[in-house]
């Protein structure tokens, strides 16, 4: 502990430490803290003086522009963001469960297919997938999805989220103790029955916290629907904010949209960490 | 009449490791057979081979005349007749005690809800946890959980009960409750095959005791003989260590826990996908 004082001394950026390296740890800590406060205060003063607050306020927080975003930011944009996200989440969960079961299957080709799918779609930027989807109707002439733009957006999010969900669910399935399957089988259940009645319900419980985080990630990824060239009733938050911003030549709508995202993502984030803590206690 | 359990020339390898080296062994209906032996002797593996939780490498297992090792046998149907109780209980933690005892009755035996519930409550009362129906397994003590596990197996009306060190994971003061449930079962004529370290229980309840070491049956016979007056040196050494651990010259770790059982809690860390 004391040998450390030699190397720690030059770390003080102020260089005003009286008495050289012979300071007690408590004194050194006090000085270090004082220096940190001074640096922080200097930074705050500098930002306050140097930034053009009026210009910023005019571009990012203009009240009369902000008002224009209501109520559509909630009734149309947020609603659509939630539709895209929940749709992608539901189908992604189903696809992910299927892929996770394939990944753990005893049939080797199933494992290969699952691994290839997961590796590809976790490795690609989500945006690239949306750009692909844009060309699907061109590439496959008979291509049709229910729900119009909703269908396309949900498809894109499903492709991405099923790859991530597959890995989460696989971890969840493997986290269920082996004895559970043995107990179920020794009661005469078939492998499939044991999976459905015993293993999958427990795996889902295990993955609820990480899945909540995945839902948040998906909510943010739903902004990529912007690149599908959506319009009118199909716009989600990002597209809505972007359109209104170019219309009014002002960034305030983007701020409004940003706050709207946070309104959903921050509570969900808290929920996820609460669920995590509760699970850590319960197990 | 066929034996309740008939095992012939049973071998089991785990990779290079030969755990069972040719076991021949029978249990007759109504008999209580206790298998004792040091950890790593293969006794848990033997038990797990009886209901094919482990696939034997070689040899046959017959239960009530049905050869379970026949690849064409309906193993799920055969297991319905075999109750199994694990060292680590293995109750389903997401279900209430009552649902734990009902689920296989409903899904496997296709019993109606009312009947399954009646049978479940009956068996839970029988093992002394009738008042815990609505609790979840993690809320119960180890002794209560193990008794629920016994009720869960009994609810399937098994012909044979397999016990894999049922008291090894329990606090010492809870062992007695579980053993007394097992004693009652034996008295009612249940056929039981028990892997245990409880020598006084084996001595009192067993019709036959089998001592295993190194993957073979070293000695078997009535408890007075195998536990009371063992003929083999290995049996004598083992019993001395178990019954009088403080005076055994070698290390006494064997009696504490079994390394062979596969229930090392795999509290797997959840890999975050992202």
UniProtKB/TrEMBL annotation, chain A:
Transmembrane intervals: 34-53, 82-102, 123-144, 150-169, 190-208, 254-273
Start and end residues of each ABC transmembrane type-1 domain: 78-272
InterPro entries: AA_ABC_transptr_permease_3TM, ArtM/GltK/GlnP/TcyL/YhdX-like, MetI-like, MetI-like_sf
Topological type in the membrane: Multi-pass membrane protein
One GO CC term, this protein: ATP-binding cassette (ABC) transporter complex
Stretches the record annotates as Disordered: 1-24
Comp. bias regions, Low complexity: 8-20
GO terms assigned for molecular function: transmembrane transporter activity
Predominant cellular place of this UniProt entry's protein: membrane
Pfam families: BPD_transp_1
Alphabetical list of PROSITE patterns matching this protein: ABC_TM1
Keyword field: Amino-acid transport, Cell membrane, Membrane, Transmembrane, Transmembrane helix, Transport
GO biological process: amino acid transport
Domain of life: Bacteria
Transmembrane as UniProt keyword: yes
Subcellular location: Cell membrane
Entry's family note: Belongs to the binding-protein-dependent transport system permease family. HisMQ subfamily.
NCBIfam families from the UniProt entry: HEQRo_perm_3TM (TIGR01726)
Protein name per the record: Amino acid ABC transporter permease
Species annotation: Sphaerisporangium melleum
Lineage: Bacteria, Bacillati, Actinomycetota, Actinomycetes, Streptosporangiales
TrEMBL record, chain B:
Main location: membrane
Membrane topology per record: Peripheral membrane protein
Molecular function (Gene Ontology), one example: ATP binding
Low complexity bias locations: 254-263
EC number of the protein: 7.4.2.1
Subcellular localization(s) per the UniProt record: Cell membrane
Keyword ATP-binding listed: yes
InterPro entries noted in UniProt: AAA+_ATPase, ABC_ATPase_HisP-typ, ABC_transporter-like_ATP-bd, ABC_transporter-like_CS, MetN_ABC_transporter-like, P-loop_NTPase
Entry keyword set: Amino-acid transport, ATP-binding, Cell membrane, Membrane, Nucleotide-binding, Transport
Pfam families: ABC_tran
Region (Disordered) location: 242-274
Ranges for domain ABC transporter: 5-239
An example Gene Ontology CC term for this record: plasma membrane
EC category name: translocase
Catalytic activity: a polar amino acid(out) + ATP + H2O = a polar amino acid(in) + ADP + phosphate + H(+)
Entries under PANTHER family matching the protein: AMINO ACID IMPORT ATP-BINDING PROTEIN, GLUTAMATE_ASPARTATE IMPORT ATP-BINDING PROTEIN GLTL
Entry's family note: Belongs to the ABC transporter superfamily.
Protein name per Swiss-Prot or TrEMBL: ABC-type polar-amino-acid transporter
UniProt organism field: Sphaerisporangium melleum
């Amino acid at each position: 502990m004391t040998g450390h004082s030699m190397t720690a001394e030059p770390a003080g950026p102020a260089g005003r430490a009286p008495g050289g390296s012979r300071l007690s740890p408590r004194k050194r800590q006090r000085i270090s803290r004082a220096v940190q406060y001074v640096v922080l205060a200097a930074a705050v003063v500098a930002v306050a003086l140097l930034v053009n607050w009026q210009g910023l306020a005019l571009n990012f927080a203009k009240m009369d522009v902000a008002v224009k975003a209501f109520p559509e930011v909630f009734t149309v944009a947020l609603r659509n963001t939630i539709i895209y996200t929940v749709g992608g989440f539901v189908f992604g969960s189903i696809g992910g469960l299927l892929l996770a079961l394939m990944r753990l299957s005893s049939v080797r080709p199933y494992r290969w297919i699952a691994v290839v799918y997961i590796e590809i779609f976790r490795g690609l930027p989500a945006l690239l997938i949306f750009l692909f989807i844009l060309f699907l109707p061109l590439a496959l002439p008979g291509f049709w999805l229910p729900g119009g733009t909703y269908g396309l957006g949900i498809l894109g999010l499903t492709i991405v989220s099923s790859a991530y969900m597959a890995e989460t669910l696989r971890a969840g399935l493997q986290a269920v103790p082996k004895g559970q399957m043995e107990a179920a089988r020794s009661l005469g259940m078939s492998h499939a029955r044991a999976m459905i009645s015993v293993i999958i319900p427990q795996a889902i419980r295990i993955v609820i916290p990480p899945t909540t985080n995945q839902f948040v990630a998906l909510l943010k990824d739903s902004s990529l629907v912007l690149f599908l060239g959506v319009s009118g009733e199909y716009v989600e938050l990002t597209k809505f904010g972007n359109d209104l911003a170019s219309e009014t030549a002002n960034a305030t709508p983007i701020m409004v949209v940003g706050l709207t995202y946070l309104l959903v993502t921050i509570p969900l984030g808290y929920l996820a960490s609460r669920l995590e803590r509760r699970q850590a206690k319960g197990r | 009449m066929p034996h309740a359990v008939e095992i012939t020339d049973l071998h089991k390898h785990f990779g290079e490791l030969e755990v069972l080296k040719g076991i021949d062994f029978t249990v007759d209906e109504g008999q209580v057979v206790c298998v004792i032996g040091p950890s790593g002797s293969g006794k848990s593996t033997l038990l797990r081979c009886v209901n094919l939780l482990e696939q034997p490498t070689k040899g046959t297992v017959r239960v009530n005349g049905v050869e379970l090792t026949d690849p064409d046998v309906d193993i799920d149907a055969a297991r319905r007749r075999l109750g199994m109780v694990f060292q680590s209980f293995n109750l389903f933690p997401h279900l209430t005690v009552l649902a734990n005892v009902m689920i296989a009755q409903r899904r496997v035996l296709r019993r109606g809800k009312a009947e399954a519930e009646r049978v479940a409550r009956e068996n839970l009362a029988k093992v002394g946890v009738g008042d815990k129906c609505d609790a979840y397994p993690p809320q119960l003590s180890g002794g209560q959980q193990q008794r629920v596990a016994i009720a869960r197996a009994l609810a399937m009306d098994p012909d044979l009960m397999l016990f894999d060190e049922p008291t090894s994971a329990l606090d010492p003061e809870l062992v007695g409750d579980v053993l007394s449930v097992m004693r009652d079962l034996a008295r009612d004529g249940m056929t039981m095959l028990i892997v245990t370290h409880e020598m006084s229980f084996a001595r009192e309840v067993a019709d036959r005791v089998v001592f295993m070491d190194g993957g073979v049956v070293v000695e078997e016979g009535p408890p007075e003989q195998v536990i009371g007056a063992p003929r083999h040196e290995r049996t004598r050494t083992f019993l001395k260590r178990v019954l009088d651990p403080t005076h055994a010259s070698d290390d006494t770790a064997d009696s504490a826990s079994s390394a062979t059982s596969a229930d090392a809690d795999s509290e797997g860390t959840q890999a975050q996908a992202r």
